[in-house]
Amino acid sequence: MELTFKEFLRGGKEQLTAAGFAELEAEHLLAHTLGLSRMDLHNPLTVENALSAIGDMSVVEETFWKLLDRRCAHEPLQYLTGVAYFRHLEIKVGPGVLVPRPESELLVESALTYIERIDGPVSVVDLGAGSGALALSIATEAPNTHVIAVEKSAEAIYWLKKNVSFIDEKVRILESDVSTALEGVKCDVVIANPPYVPDSEELPRDVKEHEPAVALFGGSDGMKTPRLFVSTAVRLLKPGGFLAIEHHESQGEKITEVLTEDFTDIILHKDLSSRPRFTTGIRR
Ligand code: GLN
């Protein structure tokens, strides 16, 4: 006998919890299967309409079970649904690009606070922009900005282009290595979430097996890439310009050390779980 919608949602939840995942993820996956939002699942009429538009319940079931199996193999939920929520944005993501993390939302907040205090246009460069979550948040939340998103990975640029074209076409994409990007250019703000995880760190399976290593690992102590990003920020920023750079919880002191010569007002900020997560400074 064919399972009802409620029964297979319950089955999905059971499969996920048995494998150690949150049962709520079953709702995200089923909503995605039906082309609905998660909240829509609680509206029987909307569900009914979606099911009859698809017509064949077994197609829904098969797609849903396949997604559940992939999630149980630790594919990130956001790769399966194709979307990550970041601040007020829906960012398109998939294999090849880092899923934007909530801790970076706070970095954006601190950059916006600096930007608010400036009159007139503000030039912002996002180094290693990935999906574009940070760059697009700034561009949409602070309309007085001109934002350039620098990214070297062709796979990440595929997603970056999609997000820029869906969300804000004014963001300029520059395909370049950070070290050589924008020679001769000066800007007011640099934001960066560089790969900073120490090479030897054991990451959760979802991250280690599916997200791009190039966006995660920053050398033996994780500081090699952040140092390169800081030297580019030093080159790009006007005197009085603002830098916000995300880092590993163990790198607060090291980043301060790296910034001391060229920056004043160096502040270490904590993430939502009170771990040192990003540092801001003003270019001397
Ligand atoms: N914080 C990320 C993680 O959870 C790492 C992001 C990065 O290296 N920029 O793995």
Automatic annotation (TrEMBL):
Gene3D superfamilies: DNA helicase RuvA subunit, C-terminal domain, Vaccinia Virus protein VP39. Residues 7-82 form the Release factor glutamine methyltransferase N-terminal domain. One of its GO terms (biological process) is methylation. Keywords: Methyltransferase, S-adenosyl-L-methionine, Transferase. Pfam families: MTS (PF05175), PrmC_N (PF17827). GO terms for molecular function: nucleic acid binding; peptide chain release factor N(5)-glutamine methyltransferase activity. The lineage of its organism: unclassified sequences, metagenomes, ecological metagenomes. This is peptide chain release factor N(5)-glutamine methyltransferase. It catalyses: L-glutaminyl-[peptide chain release factor] + S-adenosyl-L-methionine = N(5)-methyl-L-glutaminyl-[peptide chain release factor] + S-adenosyl-L-homocysteine + H(+). It comes from freshwater metagenome. It is an enzyme of class 2 (transferase). Its EC number is 2.1.1.297. Signal peptide: none annotated. Residues 123-200 form the Methyltransferase small domain.
